[in-house]
């Protein structure tokens, strides 16, 4: 019996070797697969953790954007009211001077410039804050820069928001005032206007601004994001991040998002214009549909200015709250953050 086993082994040597190879291969493959599965699970867990960290970081970034923007909104109103000062013209008109018609022509331009200028400045500032914060947060997420030098660079970069408030808004107002003057030149003060006529005028102004949009944005960008910060030594990071931000502001997506924000802003303005027509139709004694009611342009201007002053930009339900919730705006910020948070050094 004991001789049978060696004999059997000799007779089936090849089969046994093949069977041993198969068993050994399966064992090796099983070990390899277990190791790969463990590695894949570890990698997948790390990716999920990274996505969660990235998501939480971006949500915190958006919250910070909203806080910064809302704190700047009252400053926009101050700059607009100071730069386009209507009060002086109103005082002159009240004295019934010989050039009263000329002053009224100037007044209608100023009132429309105030209203549209504030809305455009709000849209631009909201997008700029989101762009800058998304770019910077992406860099911070990747580099984890927390040293004093990095913090100083980040503060210099974000100070461009203050530059926009101090200088950029005036550029916006000057550009819009030129466009408003050209579009209102053919609208006489005695012309009877319905609500839809006002919307047509505002849309015409919007289209004129859109036609010169590229030059308009480049002018603002050149002021806020200079090509070089050579006055600051060893500031390669600031140069790099400023150029990248400049490219984003001048890209097609930025213009598209800006127009979507402006469209939302015009809808909000038309709601305010409806208030003007309701106020002007109150003396009729019966209900008048604002869309069917027409008033002389000159009569509409002071009511429009009063409504502009009465509405506080940060009050509940105002346009800025709607602006912060616009999905295309937040998606634009998310795409920027995703791009910069995955960059390698």
TrEMBL record:
Subunit note: Interacts with PEX19.
InterPro entries the record matches: Peroxin-3
A Gene Ontology term for the protein's cellular component: peroxisomal membrane
Summary of the function given for this chain in its UniProt record: Involved in peroxisome biosynthesis and integrity. Assembles membrane vesicles before the matrix proteins are translocated. As a docking factor for PEX19, is necessary for the import of peroxisomal membrane proteins in the peroxisomes.
The organism's place on the tree of life at top rank: Eukaryota
Record GO biological process: protein import into peroxisome membrane
Cleavable signal peptide: none
Pfam families, sorted: Peroxin-3 (PF04882)
Sequence intervals crossing the membrane: 16-33
GO function terms (MF aspect): protein-macromolecule adaptor activity
Keywords carried by this UniProt record: Membrane, Peroxisome biogenesis, Transmembrane, Transmembrane helix
Name of the molecule in the record: Peroxisomal biogenesis factor 3
């Amino acid at each position: 019996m004991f001789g049978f086993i060696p004999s059997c082994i000799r007779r089936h040597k090849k089969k046994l070797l093949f069977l041993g190879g198969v068993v050994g291969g399966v064992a090796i493959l099983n070990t390899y697969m277990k190791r790969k599965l463990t590695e894949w699970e570890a990698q997948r867990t790390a990716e999920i953790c990274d996505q969660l960290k990235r998501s939480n970081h971006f949500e915190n970034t958006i919250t910070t954007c909203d806080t910064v923007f809302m704190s700047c909104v009252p400053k926009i109103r101050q700059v607009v009211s100071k730069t386009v000062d209507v009060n002086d013209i109103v005082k002159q008109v009240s004295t019934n001077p010989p050039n009263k018609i000329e002053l009224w022509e100037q007044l209608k331009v100023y009132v429309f410039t105030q209203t549209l200028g504030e809305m455009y400045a709000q849209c631009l500032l909201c997008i700029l804050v989101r762009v800058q914060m998304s770019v910077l947060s992406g860099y911070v997420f990747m580099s984890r820069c927390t040293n004093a030098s990095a913090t100083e660079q980040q503060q210099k970069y974000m100070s461009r928001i203050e530059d926009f408030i101090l200088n950029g808004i005036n550029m916006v107002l000057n550009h819009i005032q030129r466009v408003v003057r050209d579009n209102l030149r053919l609208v006489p003060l005695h012309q009877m206007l319905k609500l839809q006529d006002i919307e047509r005028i505002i849309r015409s102004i919007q289209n004129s601004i859109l036609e010169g949009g590229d030059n308009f944005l480049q002018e603002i960008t050149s002021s806020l994001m200079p090509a070089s910060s050579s006055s600051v030594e060893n500031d390669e990071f600031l140069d790099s991040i400023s150029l990248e931000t400049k490219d984003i502001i001048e890209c097609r997506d930025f213009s598209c998002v800006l127009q979507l924000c402006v469209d939302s802003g015009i809808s909000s303005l038309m709601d305010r214009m409806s208030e003007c027509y309701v106020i002007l139709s109150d003396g009729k004694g019966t209900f008048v549909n604002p869309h069917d009611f027409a008033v002389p342009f000159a009569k509409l201007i002071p009511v429009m200015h009063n409504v502009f002053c009465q509405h506080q930009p940060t009050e509940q339900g105002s346009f800025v709250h709607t602006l912060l919730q616009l999905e295309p705006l937040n998606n634009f910020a998310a795409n920027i953050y995703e791009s910069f948070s995955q960059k390698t050094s």
